[in-house]
Design the sequence.
């Protein structure tokens, strides 16, 4: 397997999207390796999952702000990712907004997964926002990261039905399951250089008619 494509995963939470990605790589479905996993939360499950898999994992204190990294933390994240020589940064449940220097250091090479069909319900607890709004269909979105909040060009989306008896937890579980399918499908295309961007539109080179030609079975 060609594993010269190096991925840095950054997350704050339990790390189920990291696990889905690491499993797809281990199964030979993605020509890439995870070079490093970083978190702003010392006790985050994502770090434990990475260490279980013998993948370098590091906690970096986020500094004094609640919703973004302070300057020192930003420098530490950028430096750790540059030292690991990553080609792509995969945000997997990272709960802080990335700003100037981080974005400039890896422009066009940062992707995120968000638990709604963007541009609906950006921000926190998107599954709860969808439930409270009363939509009948929601889902998840993989997108490039730019200076906006959950705003960059959309790579792919997967829909999820909302049921009348859903709770925030049951809906988030269903969205999570969709995320675990969608994110690896996007990362394989990125690793193969088969994704290009024209303005806000993301083009999947292999696909004639629609996105997501890499449906794993
Ligand atoms: C996922 O649902 C992801 O979409 C969401 O956090 C969860 C992380 O789960 N991300 C955001 O809300 C970012 N705006 P995980 O830690 O199990 O992968």
Sequence:
């Amino acid at each position: 397997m060609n594993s010269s494509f190096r991925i840095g995963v950054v997350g704050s939470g339990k790390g189920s999207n990291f696990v889905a990605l690491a499993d797809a790589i281990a199964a030979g479905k993605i020509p890439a390796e995870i070079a490093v996993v970083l978190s702003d939360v010392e006790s985050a499950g994502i770090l434990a999952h990475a260490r279980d898999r013998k993948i370098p994992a590091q906690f970096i204190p986020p500094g004094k702000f609640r919703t973004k990294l302070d300057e020192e933390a930003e420098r530490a994240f950028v430096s750790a990712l540059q030292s690991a020589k990553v080609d792509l940064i995969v945000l997997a449940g990272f709960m802080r907004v990335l700003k100037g220097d981080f974005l400039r250091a890896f422009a066009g090479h940062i992707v995120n997964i968000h638990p709604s069909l963007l541009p609906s319900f950006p921000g926190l607890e998107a599954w709860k926002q969808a439930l409270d709004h009363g939509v009948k269909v929601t889902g998840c979105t993989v997108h490039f990261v730019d200076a906006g909040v959950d705003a960059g060009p959309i790579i792919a989306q997967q829909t999820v039905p909302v049921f009348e008896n859903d709770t925030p937890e049951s809906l988030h579980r269903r969205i999570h399951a969709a995320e675990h399918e969608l994110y690896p499908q996007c990362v394989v295309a990125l690793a193969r250089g088969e994704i290009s961007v024209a303005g806000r539109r993301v083009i999947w080179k292999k696909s004639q008619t629609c996105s997501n030609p890499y449906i794993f079975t």
